[in-house]
Each structure stands twice: as structure tokens, then as C-alpha cells.
Amino acid sequence: MGEQQNLEAIMGLIMYGGNAKSDAMEAIQAAKKGDFELADQKIADAENSLTEAHHSQTNMLTQEAQGKHVDVTLLTVHSQDHLMTAIAVTDLAKEVIDVYRKMAEMTADK
């Protein structure tokens, strides 16, 4: 992988990871307001961004597996941190939304 391609993959991880995290947080806020349709859409958007980030990561891993060494820089580590944080936030957001949804259902049943 050329230096330019490597940089593009790293920036993809940062961008898509950031988008996923933002969408997941917006999903929680929507659920908090009772807008579960928007919450579900925001989670879907977050998952789409995570899929794109995984594509960038997979490209880097494939190159490494083929013997084309990728220099690990602080920027590379930073991009992986963004991705892992985005995955964690998205997973937790799904749980928080589920709790809000159950609370709304319980309130509606009364």
C-alpha cells in the first residue's frame, strides 16, 4: 500500500469512526425524546459508517498480510482508537435506546 493510500485509509477510519460516534449519540438523544424512528435511523447510519470504516481497516490489514508493511504512526493508532470508541459507543447506544423504548412502552401501558 502506498503512503497516499495508507493515509487515505487512516483518514477513512477517523472520519467514519467519528461519524458513527456522532450518529450513535444523536440516536440516544432521539430516543430520550421518544423519537424511536429517528433513533433507529441514526443507529443504522452509525452502523453504515462502521461498515465503511471496517473496509478501510480491512484494506490495511490485507496489505500487511501480503507482506506490504504499513508503518505504524501515531496517526494510525489514533485512527484505530476512533474506530474502537465508535464501536463501543454504538453498541452502548443500542442498549440505551432499548431501555428508553421499554420505559416508553411501560408508560404507555399504564
What are the main properties of this structure?
single chain; 3 helices; Methane Monooxygenase Hydroxylase, Chain G, domain 1; 110 residues; rod-shaped; 0% strand
SS summary, helix count: 3
What is the straight-line distance between the termini? 60 Å
Based on CA atoms alone, the radius of gyration comes out at 17 Å
The unreliable regions are none
Please provide the ordered H/E string of secondary-structure elements: HHH
**Sheet of most strands:** none
What's the total number of strands?
0
Percent in helix:
over 70%
Which word captures the global form? Answer: rod-shaped
InterPro entries: PTS_IIA_lac/cel, PTS_IIA_lac/cel_sf
GO molecular function, one term: metal ion binding
GO biological process, one term: phosphoenolpyruvate-dependent sugar phosphotransferase system
Organism: Enterococcus canintestini
Protein model, in words:
This protein has 110 residues and is mainly alpha-helical. The protein has a single domain, classed as Phosphotransferase system, lactose/cellobiose-type IIA subunit (Methane Monooxygenase Hydroxylase, Chain G, domain 1), CATH 1.20.58.80. The protein is built from three helices and no strands. It has helices at residues 3-32, 36-65, 74-109. The longest helix has 36 residues, at 74-109. The mean pLDDT is 92.
